[in-house]
């Protein structure tokens, strides 16, 4: 069976050129970047070259990039690192953040911090004015994601950044789902901290970075050596960094093409469902082009996903980090309420490399068939 992978928001296939770069680096760039001998200097140059690619991709300085093991570590470093450095016990976030943010905030709540969880509207969007209203004299951090991983809604980060400009409040955005899809300029967004992960844009798992604006206070969370300018201890994953940089370079070259292609896939998918008479509606608005989250009344999402899988289609009911859980999506609950049917009948399709129009047509037709069959039960 030819499988059709429509879960790129959970993780993405590694680009063939990235595989080649990674494999080549594993065999040739084996020195420790902290060593002063030739092998170490070779690794250091590769690390510096990659760091420059990351920095330029978001209009930052090379020294403002901290290499991490991925998005979760970057989020944790941003949140715990800020809390450890600043006076004050109040944090503002949104109800639809990734669990790497929500669970970090919950941990700080158990330690005596107060966290304001901003609501979202029915489209999954935070209001910048709500951030302003929630600010207090003891607020130390605002952390709001750039693009939501479940419904694709883009948040008004530049607007929030503008209202925080000139204050002593640190502003962090989780850009893991948006990086490689949206154009990102940290100066335009006015953010102090920004998290990124390689595996969402066809790079390897286990590598990412945190942007830290010059002058932003941040306490290291890993203790050991003096790597990453004493901000993140541990020998850098040089092959992973090289592969990540290759993935970023490819993504930047193809950004506009991907935007148009994925938007086309989204419209094609919905048009086929409509043509087949499937009753559905789309969750979210102001969306990134690669995410399509649909509510299909009358279906049980668990049965639906099993049937899709048996038909050779990989999709998701929400965040991969809650896979196996029968709890409704916290994002959809925040949008519609705890008892809303959307939280139990919504499915996420997400697009990426390797997909063709024929794949989308086939997947949409099978989705329509399964939807109508299950809705009759």
TrEMBL record:
Entry keyword set: Iron, Iron-sulfur, Metal-binding, Pyridoxal phosphate, Transferase
Keyword Signal: no
Domain Aminotransferase class V: 4-360
Cofactor: pyridoxal 5'-phosphate
The UniProt record lists the keyword Coiled coil: no
Cited SUPFAM superfamilies: PLP-dependent transferases
GO molecular-function terms, A-Z: cysteine desulfurase activity; iron-sulfur cluster binding; metal ion binding
Catalytic activity, reaction form: (sulfur carrier)-H + L-cysteine = (sulfur carrier)-SH + L-alanine
Family statement: Belongs to the class-V pyridoxal-phosphate-dependent aminotransferase family. NifS/IscS subfamily.
Protein name listed in UniProt: cysteine desulfurase
